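retry 2 of 3: previous attempt timed out while embedding magnesium ion. Reduced batch size to 1 and resubmitted. Inputs unchanged:
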Amino acid sequence: MKLPLLSGALVLGTFTLAQAQQGGKPEDTEVYEPVPKAVAASPNLAPPPADAIVLFNGKDLSQWVMTDDRNTPAKWKVAGGVFTVDKSTGNIETKRAFTNYQLHLEWRVPANITGTGQARGNSGLFLASTGKGDLGYELQILDSYNNKTYVNGMAGSIYKQRIPLANPTRKPGEWQSYDVMWLAPTFKADGSLQTPARVTVLFNGIVVQNNVELAGPTQYIGQPSYNGQKGGAAPIKLQSHGDKSEPDSFRNVWIREL
Ligand code: MG
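retry 2 succeeded.
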């Protein structure tokens, strides 16, 4: 990638000024082994429990706004009880902010998906959005059914940080489920880290992240850290990834605060 001229807090996708100054290349943090074992598994498609906050009820995106302008309602498309990424518009995130929670989300890569590697059904569930663009902690969404890429960037990974324990990805065109338990990081009065973020992820009903500790928000280039981070509540964000493959869809999104 040719480095663009960067200034101020300009953010280009996942590429920030801080990362440019850190040096290095995206490839430096790609990991290819061990390859998680493929496991045939069934998604959890149960309706929300009675005490859940429903974030998408099949009808509208009234709980969501555009990430880069939180005053603008989410512009992604809703049809047939599902919503679909509109790559011409950018990321969306929840109006409300959450700290510790249990989240359910169903996602589908289109049956006619094209592309390879990271350019095949790429989206992402940011467990806590820490700013505009792709800033935050990303649980990767990708077609990982017979689609090779670095294993710390496949479906079920915490992007470039935690390889999934198994690969239960179903075929493109089939619904998949994520059930996530998220504990936000906490910080001392002086701003230093008290407890890191922790996450557990069930992917199509099986554990792919088991109460793992995170080293900071996702970094496309370089190593994650908590420098400059704050704890507390944050929106949950969905990624409009800048590749040319057909857009993913979502349904049945709900959350329970813990
Ligand atoms: Mg992604």
